[in-house]
Design a protein that fits this description.
It is a single chain. The protein is 11% helix and 48% strand. The radius of gyration is 60 Å and the shape is flat. The chain contains 8 helices and 66 strands. The chain is mostly beta strands. Strand 39 (471-481) and strand 40 form a beta hairpin. Strands 55, 56, 57, 58, 59, 60, 61 and 62 form an 8-stranded antiparallel β-sheet that branches. The protein has a 7-stranded antiparallel β-sheet with strand order 50-51-52-42-54-66-65.
Length: 967
C-alpha cells in the first residue's frame, strides 16, 4: 500500500516538473546525418507540438545556420531530458518513458521534457534553448480505490480516495463517485463515506458517468454506535393488582441499530416493583397508569433516552364499602336535605369507580328527591341501608336524626350595640343558654369567639373576654345540643378607655377636643427669604407688606424736643422700602427689619427758627415676638426691641449748630421709641389677628350618603386655639375642635369614640415635613366625631327601595327594607396599624307578603374593612375598600309568620342580595368627610386668601397629615 501511494504521488508530480538526465546513457540518441558544412554558428530545436497526451508521437526539426543566418546542411542529432524538479525517481518508472523513430519521438510517461539538437561534426554546436514539451496523462483506463478505515461504527466517517490511471501507467485526477453495495444505509459526499446502518459495504470508485469502475471493491464493516435509545415493551398492557407482567428491552444506537448484550433493568417508578433485576418482570398493587421503562445496569452507559410502555393496573374485586353524608351532622332540620355518597375498594385500597349499589328502601317521612339525596317530612330517626350490588356481604347502615330546634342563646351584657368604657381590656360577657330538649346538660358545647365556655346548671354563664380591641368587637356565641343542633348569634360592641360626651347637642355644643386639629408652620412658611408681594406664600412677606403700610410718623411725639427755649419738630419723614426677616425660635418669632435711607426735616421754634434735617443710611430693628395661648386666646408680646441707626446725622444751619448738642439724643430716642411702639402695637395685633384667622365657626353641608334625593347633612364645625409651641423648626398650633349636628335619632350613646393613644399604648404629636410650608394634622378622634354627628343627625337611618333588590324573593312580595345603624361608623388604626372603617349592628328590617300573610324579618349585620384617609380638592376624604365576606357578620333575630324553610330562604336572600347591596353602598366608595377652610388674609392684603397646593397626605399616629405648599 505504501509503495502504491508513492507512485501515486509521483504520477501527480510528473505532469508539472522534471530534471535533466543528460548523463543518463539513455538520454542521447543516435544522430541522423544531415550534411557537413564549415562555418556553422547556431542550431535550433523545433517540435511540431508543445503539449500532448501520453502515447502520442512528436516530430523533431534541427536547423543549423551560419553567422549570416543562412541554413547549413550538416549532420545533426538530438537528446531528450526529463525534468523531475530534483526529486528522486525510480529508474524503472522512467524505463520506456519514450521511444525514438528517426526524427520522431513517442512519449509514454507524463511529465515535462526538453529536446536539444546538436551538430554531429561540430562538438561545441549544441542548442542552448532546447524545445519544451508537456506530456499529460491520457484517458483513464482503470480506477484505483483507497479507503482509510475499513472498520467503523455507525455514524462515523472515513475518507475515500479515487485515482485514475491511463494505459501507460500515468495517474490522473478524474471526477468520480462512490459505488456502494448495498445502496442504502449510508451517505457519500465529497469523498467521505458515512454509514448509519450496521453491516458490510462493498465500496469502489466509479466515474460519474458510470463508464469505468474500480475492478475490486473494498469491504467496510460497520458496527452499531453507542447506545442511544432503550425501549420497553410489555407482554400485556392491563393487569390486576399484584399480577406480574414480563417486559423486554430493545437497545439501539442513534440510527436504530440494535445493540446486544447490554444489561438492563426496569426504571424506578413509584408503586411498581421488580424483585430481581436480572428478570425483566414487574408488578404493582395500586390501580392507575404507569410508564415502564428500561434503564442500563452499567453506570458507564450514559445519555440514553428511555422510551416507556404504558401499564394499567385495574382494581381487583370489591372487599370494602364506605358511606358518607353531606352535610355530616348529628341531626338535621326538616328544611334540610342530606346527600349520601359511597366508595367501594378492593383488597389493596383501590377505589372501584364503577361499583354499583342496590336500590334503597326508605321509611315513611323520608324520601329520595334526587339520586342519593334525601329530604324529610317528619322529625324522626331514620336508618338507611346501602348494599353493594352482587355483593350482599358489603353493607352499611346510615342513621339520620331529624330534629328541628336548636338551643337559645341570650347575652345580657354587653348588650347589642353597646358602648363599653373601662380601663381594663377584659370585658365580661354575661348571659344564658337553654335548649328545648331540657336543661343545660343537653347542651353539648358552648363557645364564645371559639373558646369553650362553662355553663352553670341553669345554663347561665359569665365569660371574661380578654384582649378586646379598640373600636368594634364581635361576640360570636355558638351553642350545640346533643343532637348537634347548632345556634349561633353574632352581635357587636364598641370599646375604648375614653368616650367624648355628645349629649345635649342641639342646645349647648359639646366640649371641644383639645389639639384635635394641628397647624404646623414650618420655617419655610415663617420666612423663605423671598418676599414677592404678588405671592404671599410666607409670613415674612406678609409682615413686610404690612409694616411698609404703617404710618410710623404718627408715632413721633410733637414736638420731638422742648427745652432751652426751643420746640423742635420732625416733619416729612421719608425712607425706602423696609425689608423684614422672620425666624422661629423657642417661644415665638424673631423679627428683623431694615429701613434704608431714613430722612426727615427738622424745624425749631424759638429765638431763632432754623431748618435742618435728620438722616441715617439705614435703621436696623430687632424684636422677639413671644406667642402663647391662654384660655383659647392668643397672647402675643413683643419683647427685646432694639433700634440701631447707621450713620445717624442731624444737620442744622451752621450758625446755630451749637443747638444740636441740646436735642440730638432726645430726637434719636424719640424716633427709636416710635419704631418700638409700631412693633408693639401694630405687629403684635397683626400676629393675634393672624392666629385668630385659624379659628372656625361654620356650617358645612354634606350630601346624604344613601338618600341622594334627601336633604343634605348640616354639620357645625367650631375650633379655637388650644395651644401654641414654637422652636427652630417653626410653630405648631393646636386647635380645640368640635363637630356636631342636631340629634334626630331615638338612641342614646356614651359619646364619640376616642382613640386615647390606642388604649394608652402610644402618644405624642406627629412629625411634619420641614420641606413643605404648612402641615395640617386632623385627628382620627375628630373624624370619628364627624361620623358620630352624621349618625346622630339620622342620616344613617334610611329605606332601601324594593326596586333596587333585583328580582326579589320567589313567592314573596317585598313591602319595605329599612336600614337603621344602631352604632355610628368609626375609624380606627389601633388594630394591626391599618386604618379600618367599622360599623356594628346594622339593623335590617324587612316587611314582606306571603300571599295575603304579613311576614317580618329582623337581622343585624356588622362589618369591618380597610379604609384610607386622603385629601383631595381641599377636602378630607374617606375611601372604603370593598367589604370581604369573611369580615361581614350576620344574625337573624326575628322571623314572624314563617316556617323554618321560609326563614332559610329569606336568610339566603339577605346574604346574597340585601347585604351585598348594603356593602356596595359603602364598600369601594369615597366619601368627603369635611372640607378644610381657606385662611383669609384680606385684612392685611386685599384679596389675599391662603390656599393649599402641592399637597401630600399620610397617616401618622392619631392624625391624618396634609402637608402642603401655599399660594
Amino acid at each position: 500500500m505504501r509503495k502504491f501511494a508513492f507512485w501515486l504521488v509521483l504520477g501527480l508530480l510528473l505532469p508539472h516538473c522534471g530534471t535533466n538526465f543528460s548523463n543518463d546513457p539513455k538520454e542521447t540518441l543516435d544522430a541522423t546525418t544531415l550534411g557537413d558544412v564549415e562555418g556553422a554558428t547556431t542550431i535550433d530545436s523545433t517540435l511540431n507540438a508543445q503539449e500532448i497526451a501520453a502515447g502520442t508521437k512528436v516530430d523533431v526539426t534541427c536547423t543549423v545556420r551560419d553567422r549570416d543566418g543562412q541554413e547549413i546542411d550538416t549532420p545533426t542529432s538530438f537528446s531528450v531530458s526529463i525534468d523531475t524538479n530534483g526529486n528522486p525517481v525510480d529508474p524503472s518508472y522512467l524505463s520506456g518513458a519514450y521511444s525514438i523513430d528517426g526524427k520522431s519521438i513517442t512519449f509514454n510517461r507524463a511529465g515535462l521534457y526538453t529536446v536539444a539538437c546538436r551538430a554531429t561534426q561540430i562538438a561545441s554546436l549544441v542548442d542552448q534553448t532546447p524545445a519544451s514539451l508537456k506530456v499529460v496523462p491520457g484517458a483513464p483506463s482503470e480506477l484505483l480505490t483507497t479507503i482509510h478505515k475499513t472498520s467503523l461504527s455507525a455514524g462515523n466517517t472515513t475518507p475515500v480516495q479515487c485515482l485514475g490511471r491511463d494505459a501507460y501507467g500515468n495517474f490522473t485526477l478524474v471526477e468520480t463517485t462512490l459505488d456502494v453495495e448495498p445502496n442504502s444505509g449510508y451517505t457519500a459526499e465529497n469523498g467521505v463515506f458515512r454509514p448509519t446502518t450496521a453491516g458490510s459495504y462493498a465500496v469502489r470508485c466509479a466515474l460519474k458517468d458510470g463508464s469505468l469502475k474500480s475492478v475490486e471493491a473494498t469491504t467496510v464493516t460497520v458496527t452499531p454506535g453507542p447506545a442511544r435509545y432503550l425501549k420497553a415493551t410489555l407482554e400485556k398492557g392491563t393487569v390486576a393488582p399484584n399480577e406480574k407482567v414480563s417486559f423486554s428491552c430493545t437497545v439501539t444506537d442513534e440510527f436504530g441499530n440494535e445493540i446486544e448484550n447490554l444489561k438492563v433493568q426496569a426504571g424506578s417508578v413509584e408503586g411498581i416493583t421488580q424483585d430481581d433485576f436480572d428478570i425483566l418482570e414487574v408488578y404493582g398493587t395500586r390501580a392507575g397508569l404507569y410508564t415502564i421503562t428500561c434503564t442500563p445496569q452499567e453506570a458507564w452507559v450514559r445519555n440514553v433516552t428511555e422510551i416507556g410502555d404504558t401499564l394499567e393496573i385495574v382494581p381487583g374485586p370489591p372487599v370494602k364499602l364506605e358511606v358518607a353524608r353531606a352535610p355530616d351532622k348529628a341531626g338535621y332540620k326538616l328544611s334540610e336535605t342530606v346527600e349520601l355518597s359511597y366508595r367501594v375498594y378492593d383488597a389493596y385500597g383501590n377505589l372501584i369507580p364503577d361499583a354499583e349499589i342496590d336500590p334503597i328502601t326508605l321509611a315513611t317521612g323520608i324520601e329520595e328527591i334526587s339520586p342519593l339525596t334525601f329530604g324529610f317530612s317528619e322529625e324522626n330517626t331514620y336508618n338507611v341501608t346501602v348494599n353493594v350490588k352482587d355483593h350482599p356481604e358489603l353493607s352499611e347502615v346510615v342513621t339520620l336524626i331529624v330534629d328541628q330546634t336548636g338551643p337559645v342563646i341570650v347575652i345580657t351584657a354587653p348588650k347589642r350595640a353597646a358602648m363599653v368604657k373601662q380601663s381594663s381590656t377584659t370585658v365580661n360577657v354575661v348571659g344564658k343558654v337553654t335548649d328545648h330538649l331540657g336543661d343545660a346538660q343537653k347542651i353539648k358545647s358552648f363557645t364564645i369567639n371559639g373558646a369553650q365556655v362553662t355553663l352553670q346548671p341553669n345554663g347561665s354563664f359569665s365569660y371574661p373576654l380578654s384582649g378586646v380591641n379598640h373600636g368594634m368587637n364581635i361576640i360570636t356565641a355558638v351553642a350545640t345540643d346533643i343532637l348537634d343542633q347548632t345556634t349561633k348569634i353574632v352581635q357587636s360592641f364598641y370599646f375604648s378607655t375614653k368616650f367624648h360626651p355628645m349629649n345635649g347637642v342641639g342646645t349647648t355644643p359639646p366640649a371641644a377636643l383639645a389639639d384635635s386639629l394641628l397647624v404646623k408652620l414650618t420655617a419655610k412658611m415663617v420666612d423663605d427669604g423671598i418676599h414677592d408681594q404678588r405671592e404671599l406664600d410666607d409670613l415674612g412677606t406678609l409682615f413686610e407688606l404690612v409694616i411698609n403700610d404703617l404710618d410710623i410718623f404718627s408715632y413721633l411725639p410733637r414736638p420731638a424736643y422742648s427745652g432751652n427755649g426751643y420746640d423742635v419738630y420732625v416733619e416729612n419723614l421719608t425712607y425706602q422700602h423696609i425689608t423684614v426677616t422672620l425666624a422661629p425660635f423657642v417661644g415665638g418669632l424673631n423679627l428683623k427689619a431694615t429701613i434704608p435711607n431714613f430722612y426727615a426735616e427738622i424745624e425749631a421754634k424759638g429765638p431763632f427758627n432754623p431748618d435742618g434735617s435728620v438722616s441715617a443710611s439705614k435703621v436696623n430693628i430687632n424684636a422677639n415676638i413671644n406667642i402663647s395661648v391662654v384660655n383659647s386666646q392668643p397672647v402675643v408680646a413683643v419683647k427685646d426691641v432694639t433700634v440701631e441707626f447707621i450713620d445717624f446725622n442731624i444737620d442744622v444751619h451752621w450758625a446755630i449748630n451749637w443747638l444740636i448738642n441740646f436735642f440730638e439724643e432726645d430726637i434719636k430716642k424719640d424716633i427709636e421709641s416710635a419704631f418700638a411702639q409700631v412693633l408693639q402695637n401694630q405687629v403684635g395685633s397683626m400676629v393675634v389677628s393672624f392666629l385668630t384667622q385659624l379659628n372656625l365657626n361654620d356650617n358645612y353641608q354634606i350630601p346624604n350618603f344613601f338618600d341622594t334625593s334627601g336633604p343634605p347633612i348640616t354639620l357645625q364645625v367650631v375650633s379655637t386655639l388650644s395651644s401654641a409651641s414654637f422652636d427652630q423648626t417653626g410653630g405648631l398650633l393646636g386647635l380645640g375642635t368640635i363637630i356636631y349636628a342636631k340629634k334626630n335619632i331615638q338612641r342614646s350613646a356614651l359619646g364619640t369614640l376616642l382613640r386615647d393613644g390606642c388604649l394608652q399604648s402610644d402618644s405624642g404629636f406627629p412629625t411634619f415635613n420641614e420641606f413643605k410650608r404648612i402641615g395640617i394634622g386632623v385627628s382620627v378622634d375628630l373624624l370619628n366625631m364627624a361620623l358620630f354627628s352624621i349618625w346622630w343627625n339620622g342620616a344613617l337611618t334610611f329605606d332601601v327601595p324594593p326596586s333596587q333588590l333585583g328580582a326579589g324573593i320567589p313567592g314573596f312580595t317585598i313591602q319595605s327594607v329599612h336600614v337603621d345603624m344602631a352604632l355610628p361608623p368609626i375609624i380606627t388604626d389601633c388594630n394591626g396599624g391599618k386604618t379600618q372603617l367599622q360599623i356594628g349592628d346594622i339593623e335590617l328590617d324587612l316587611k314582606l307578603k306571603l300571599g295575603t300573610k304579613d311576614v317580618r324579618l329582623t337581622m343585624y349585620a356588622s362589618f369591618s374593612t380597610e379604609a384610607m384617609l386622603g385629601f383631595a380638592n381641599d377636602q378630607i376624604t374617606l375611601t372604603v375598600n370593598e367589604i370581604a365576606q369573611e369580615n361581614l357578620y350576620l344574625e337573624l333575630t326575628r322571623a314572624d309568620g314563617l316556617g323554618v324553610s321560609d326563614v332559610d330562604q329569606l336568610t339566603a336572600f339577605v346574604k346574597t342580595t340585601a347585604l351585598p347591596l348594603l356593602s356596595n353602598l359603602i364598600g369601594g366608595q369615597t366619601f368627603n368627610a369635611f372640607p378644610l377652610p381657606e385662611i383669609d388674609f384680606s385684612a392685611f392684603a386685599p384679596g389675599a386668601i391662603l390656599k393649599l397646593k402641592e399637597s401630600e397626605f399620610s397617616s401618622q399616629k392619631d392624625f391624618l397629615l396634609i402637608q402642603s405648599n401655599v399660594e
